[in-house]
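User: Could you check the structure of this?
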Amino acid sequence: MRSAWSLAVIPVVLLLVAADQPTPAPPIPPAPTAAPAATAMPSAPAIPAGTVTSVVDPGLLTHGKNVLHGITRDPKTGDLIIGVSNKIAHVIPMVTTTFSNDDSLRRVTAAGQVSRLTGFPYPNAMLFNPRDGMLYVAVGAVGCNEQQGGMTVSRHCPGTNGIVAVDPATGDHHDFVGAGPGFADGKGTDARFTAAGGIAFDPVTGTMFVADTENQRVRQVTLDGTVTTIAGSGTRGNSDGVGAAASFAYPRGIAYCPSDKTLVIADTNNNDIRKVTLDGKVTTIAGTSDTGYVDGTPANARFDHPRGVACDEAGIVYVADTDNNVIRAITTAGAVITLAGTKQMGTVNGVGTAARFSNPTDVWYEPSDHSLYVIDFGDNNVRKVTAAAPQ
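Assistant: Sure, the predicted structure tokens are below.
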């Protein structure tokens, strides 16, 4: 969708006027050699409008009230893995209604068949780590209500706020790092997270990176379970800088960009997209921090609570711009464009702005066919955005 432009070359004609000279006239100097034509500036590769289709019948996910969180793809089977938060109502007629959760991971085949892989509270984001073949799931933000002084108070439930490791063949799982809400670096369950919202990994080392949403930090997790903090002060803010000098406001989506070996972050409540180097240097690459919907240069573009990000092999960043109901792209040439959807909410398959989303939250980039898989949160749906590779 980027406009190609070229540098127009206007030939300049030199008019040589010979002055009247007495005889004998001096030799006429040779005409100057014409300057070589300027080379046209190469146009930036275009990103075609995305074609949006539905991946699964949402009715196959119905079981109580579903809320979808997170998406990844099994590199061995090609199946999608999505997180489901299930709120089930238990009605005793004329007496009461109670609720329970049946949170789980669901496997979705290419044919759209859905099966349950395993269950544990509030799976937020997930990935397959090829270094050991395990599925790692960022979990947390489980709400519990309790009575205090005659009032109902909501708080975080006890239990894992961190990373759960899952055997994708059997569904067996265990707490890998983190155990209960809080903040602490450390190893294994000695570490603490609060509502880990996103997870990414370095394919070379297998090291994982977590958007620790309510701790306002970015954490690093090695395969031996050692947790360290690489960026974020822990206090909500909006500052670029290195390590604890940087600040975030509920960072959620996180992705690894192989082209420059950096992380990209959806800094949700700042309405910005941030870059983080692996040594903790944070910069803002798009967004003004003001809520809005504006394509254009990264410094002028506006987002509305973006929650999901992905990065392709060329370095193009894809954004699930949640409250704008669109999928955006930040090109390598330095432009923010809309790939699919419009501000208008809906569930419509189509091409580019003819498509409609309803609060898309999570996005997974699939390099094999240059497509995006999107959790369309408001529609309890999984959508696919297909575009040809940039030319």
